Amino acid sequence: MGPLQKSVYWRLSLIFVFTAFMFFVDVFTVHHFSCASLRESGNVNFLDESPEKNFSYDISNENRSLSIAFAESFNSSECGDNKLREYGLTMYMSGLLLGSLFGGALSDKYGKKVLLVGCSTIQAIIALMPAFIPNAIFHLTARLIGGIMCCGINIASFSLGVEWSLPRYHVWPPALLSFSFSIGMMFLALIAYLASNWQQFYLAIAVPQLLCIPLYFCIPESPRWLLMKKRFSTLEEYRHESRKDQENLDLILETVGMKTQQPIEQNNASERISDFQHFKSQTIVQRLCIMSFISLSSALTYYGICFNVGNFGVNIYLAQFFSGLTEMPTLLVPLLLVRFGRRTFTMISLLMSGSGCLLSLLVSKLCDMPSLVMALALIGKLCMQTTVFVSLLYGIELFPTVIRQKCVGFVNLWYRIGCILNAVLSPKDGISLEAMICYGSGPILGAGLCLLLPETSGISLPDTVQDCKKQPVPSLFSKSRKVHVPGKDCSGLEPIQELQ
Predict the structure, then answer these.
(1) Which homologous superfamily does the CATH classification assign to the domain defined by 1-256?
(2) DSSP one-letter string for 267-317
(3) pLDDT over threshold 70, residue 119
(4) How far apart are CA 224 and CA 164, in angstroms?
(5) Ramachandran assignment for 291, one of left (phi > 0), alpha (psi -120 to 50 degrees), beta (any other)
(6) DSSP string, 386-407
(7) Dihedral (C-alpha) 312, 318, 321, 323: value to the nearest 10 degrees?
């Protein structure tokens, strides 16, 4: 692994830790402020729904005005009201949906680095401003903008990480980013527990992001995108960083023994074909439909559990912490993917996720054991998290370079629709029977649809629709076979021990 690859991976991981802060901030916002009771003396008492934590202190004018705004705007004087969380989640998920509409197109046009740096910078600024602008309308506006930025970060990060990896290591960047997201979830629970007021809470999650902004400008651009745009001078700069980087770039671009200035015939031919013609292919349409359904059902299950960890009858801080902790094993998933391949593993994780949710529903109806119900639900969530990042990798490998980001953006659109449905239909008093049935049945149906998809393990990223058609569709639960695509490096999977 060359210096440039290491630079990409650790910087993307840092961004994802901060992205988790912004993603789940509404979980603790409602917990701190939905139960505010203002007194004439200027004191405010923020009561936890459980007796473990009680915030009681004198507040400044800024914090007081913020509390008044929330109390008046959202009618949150009663402790059981979740209006604040519903509005905040809805605005954030709406932002994710808006970002998915144009994030892929912007990434294709201007590059993944530009989109990533811009979104990360704006996200850091948006995280800081609510600490000093105590206004309910501004808070919701900030959540909307934050959702758009988060979507842009997701679209650019996963593709950038995969495109800087050799074919046999494509699975590691999504695993690393998912692992970083889990760390962010656990740190957020700790920050929320230690913060004594709104301003401290937002400063604690915003200041580190601002300090790290200069690091993002050193992230290198996608080599495949640079080659497609014929920016050979930038590629040459990357090649001269170190001998290891030169070797890796040759393997990534599949141009060993050739100069990067020589254009690739397939790329030139694909440029003469409009994007609309690519989307008329039956292969592309089928894959878009299947991956969109899997994304929709994954979002319903994953975030339906994530945003309702406080409804399982246990301490919300511990619930959020263990919600992140249960996702830590996703770092080991690449080892399993070497054994089973993308398609088979996606099917297994979808089946286990749906089964875990349905089993937790059964236990909740037969016995009063909130901890066991939450444990089963979190196991289902772990399986769904593995499905989410494997399907992200899968989606990148299923679509050709010429329209990859547009396809990823379309699939991501349905993922965000599932997020919005969760936010709008978020239950006030626990997860309903209908919701848990939905969380469990969707992944099981998605597992069946995976039978129509090809296996992409160890195969180079396709550049054209013809490359996609040459990807193998193996029999049920069979491991991928090597397929030769002219001009491609299909060396297959190498031992994971080679990764350094």
Answers:
(1) MFS general substrate transporter like domains (1.20.1250.20)
(2) HHHHHTS-HHHHHT-HHHHHHHHHHHHHHHHHHHHHHHHHTTGGGSSS-HH
(3) yes
(4) 9
(5) alpha
(6) HHHHHHHHHHHHHS-GGGHHHH
(7) -20
Check for a shared fold between 1-256 and 278-494: yes
For residue range 420-442, list pLDDT tens digits in order: 787 666 555 556 677 777 777 88
How far apart are the C-alpha atoms of 234 and 494, rounded to whole Å?
Answer: 29
Burial bucket for residue 231 (CB in 10 Å: 0-12, 13-18, 19+): middle
Question: Tens digits of per-residue pLDDT, 208-252?
Answer: 999 999 999 989 988 888 888 888 888 888 888 878 878 878 887
331-377 pLDDT, tens per residue?
777 788 777 888 888 888 888 888 877 777 677 667 777 777 777 77
Q: Is 260 helix (H, G, I), strand (E, B) or coil?
A: coil
Could you tell me which CATH number the domain at 278-494 has?
1.20.1250.20
Total Cβ atoms within 10 A of residue 40: 5
Residue 379, H or E segment: helix 370-398
H helix intervals, 217-281: 223-228, 232-239, 243-253, 265-271, 275-279
C-alpha–C-alpha distance, residues 343 and 331, integer Å: 18
Please give the angle made by the CA atoms of 142, 53 and 33, to the nearest 5 degrees.
30
**Cβ contact 343:415 at 8 Å:** no
Closest CA to 175 of 17, 392, 486: 392
Domain ranges of the chain: 1-256, 278-494
Please, what is the angle between helix 136-163 and helix 61-74, to 10°? 90
44 vs 35: CA distance, rounded Å: 10
